[in-house]
Specification:
6 strands; 6-stranded mixed β-sheet; elongated; 285 residues; 48% helix
Length: 285
Amino acid sequence: MPEKRERRTPSVRGRQLGLELKRLRIEAQLTADHVAEHVGCSQGKVSRIELAQTGISKGDLFLMLALYGITDPQVKEQYWRLAREARGRGWWENYRQVITSGLSTYIAFEAEASQLNSWSWGTINGLLQTADYARAVFLGEPGGHGRTDEDIDKLVAARMERQQPIMEGPVELWCILDESLLRRTLGGPGVLKGQIDHLLKPRRNVTIQVLRQQTLWHAGLNGAFTIMNFPSHPDVVFIETLAGDLHLESAGDIEQFTLAFNYLRAAAAGVEESRELIARARDEI
């Protein structure tokens, strides 16, 4: 009987468990094939568990841990607790019909981040968008005019729900905006003016800088990206592409994008001057 594949949205806790299981397997000098034979599943399932693309039963987890030499009952229960937490459904699962798997992964990580460092080039960061601006963005995306009004409403509702951690304060957001975004009238002048007014609302956990348009060369020319920091998980970088958000986790990639963000932060106008630039753009509409 073929093995049933249950694809999950990778979460931070799922990635923690997957990385730990992969580390234990490598330290035990075992291949995924060896583990699959011991557990009684396919090599592909072992890989999906390590990539947090599928859940793991308590029986399979304990078989793996025994193979890796983990016999302490308390340690085994700690791994099982992590596996149970990874199985929880996030609010974004209610929007699976309209949200792509790549965006679901992004939201799942974003929901558990403690700090977000973002460079916004094509559109204003989704966590700072008004509902009207978000609607204009979704309508303007490739294929956006083919979406139903109900689909657009659901996408806007999901974007507004994403903003709750920012509105409520537990997440720190440092966002650098390209100045051209302040003059790109997505949805019309009224929508942009409302969006800029929203950016001017003071929030203690949000820092906004503007990179002036006359900055010809800068470290963000290859596109928008977000660096996510977590309390107990390695940093992750998400890059915006036409095919969806690509996420990177290697230490080298994190270092490269952190350096790029620091260069952007240094090149951008200071916080107070940025606020003046935003206000000036509003007055020019």
